[in-house]
Amino acid sequence: MRRNVKELLVEAKDASELMVDLAYAAVFFGDADLAGEVIRLEDRMDAAVRELRELCMLAARTPEDAEQLAGILGMVNAVEEIADAAEDIARVVLRDLGVPGELRDDLRHAEEVVARVKVREENHLAGRTLEDLSLPSETGMWVIAVRRDVAYLHGPDGDTVLQEGDVLFLQGPPDGVDLVRELAGGEAYHLPPPTNRGRLTKLDRAVDILVELKNTAEVAVGLAYSAILFRDLGLAREVSVLEDKCDALYHDLQRWVLRAAADVGDDEIDELRGLLQIGLSSERITDAAQEMTRLAESADEPHPVISAALRETDEIVTDAVVHVGSAAEGRSLQELRLETETGMYVLGIQRAQRWLYRPRSTTRLMAGDRLLCTGPEDGVSPLRALTGDDRMADESGD
């Protein structure tokens, strides 16, 4: 049965976001299987994008049709560019370029990672629903997708019953990865703790810049989707600011990598090449995010199918305003445990016309803060209940 434009756009967006998460995770764990999943998803992306372009061409019967469908194709091109950049990051692992241990140490400080776990023969997961397993409360990890044979299930719900052979893609704290691997019948990674750094070296500086570049690229994509969904010119401008920042970061990365090259042996040069490739791909992701915001900046309304698709993906983008006297006012993100309680992840906080991106868990919320979040649709109502925002779950921000 032939799929429609909205279904294909949802699949392309979900696949590209998962590819980015898995590509960076492949670097973190040095895991060729994770990198292989990125390549597998790229093949599915190519098929969906090709079919989507065919449908758009067939649907354009008038100049007005063509003008609106051009917006869809522009978004598709940006999504495809994000996926291509993710593939290039994964190939750093597949080509055995390697990355410096300092990068894995820095990534290990991250509050969240993405992992791939296969449900093996001797396991404690098969035959049970996700709701029954309560993985978020037991391990801190959320299942964001499941691959069963060749089919991907994005954003599985609590009624999803796991089977032996399923490949789970999870998001959560680094410590939770080993817990899920053991439940699934696999062996724990037993990653060593981050090493204590002494004096910062040139390589340390390059690694710190790359981690900031990665984080900025991920936020830019979330803000770009938000700008389109909310038709928010302010968010579109924020993406442009982040794109400029990524350009500057990538130039700084090149300088510090070249300086570090003088201090390493020939056997470590490939690791520096890996840093540059990941940096370039991260910069491309931000470029694609900025390109998407053209839809929000256009005087013409984007095709309705774009908003419909953004609302039906496995992870939607929403906002919530913190009100006086709410449960969220004065409390930190860590105390609220938003991801565990609502499934929503905070991309940024708008406070007095300024944005705080990827806020730390110690960030305390104030009345008037606007939270920009991503997560499952059923997390919107509990999120807004915590913040005292009485809008219905299907209402967008201003």
Largest sheet: 4 strands, antiparallel
Helix fraction, binned, reads 55-70%
Rg over CA atoms, rounded to whole Å, is: 21 Å
Strand order of the largest sheet: 1-4-2-3
What's the shape?
globular
Alpha-beta classification: alpha+beta
- Could you list the spans in which at least 5 consecutive residues all have pLDDT below 50? none
Number of helices, counting only DSSP H or I runs of 4 residues or more = 15
Report how far apart the termini are: 38 Å
| Beta-strand share of residues | 5-15%
Reported CATH architecture of the largest domain: Up-down Bundle
Order of helices and strands: HHHHEHHEEEHHHHHHEHHEEEH
- The overall pLDDT average reads 86
CATH hierarchy, class of the largest domain: Mainly Alpha
Provide a descriptive summary of the structure in words.
This protein is an alpha+beta fold. The chain folds into three domains: 5-106 and 196-304, Up-down Bundle (Methane Monooxygenase Hydroxylase, Chain G, domain 1); 110-183, Alpha-Beta Plaits; 315-387, 2-Layer Sandwich (Alpha-Beta Plaits), CATH 3.30.70.1450. It is built from 15 helices and eight strands. The strands form two sheets. A four-stranded antiparallel β-sheet has the order 1-4-2-3. The longest helix is centred in the first third of the chain and has 32 residues, at 63-94. It is globular and about 60 Å long. The chain starts with a helix and ends in an 11-residue tail after the last helix.
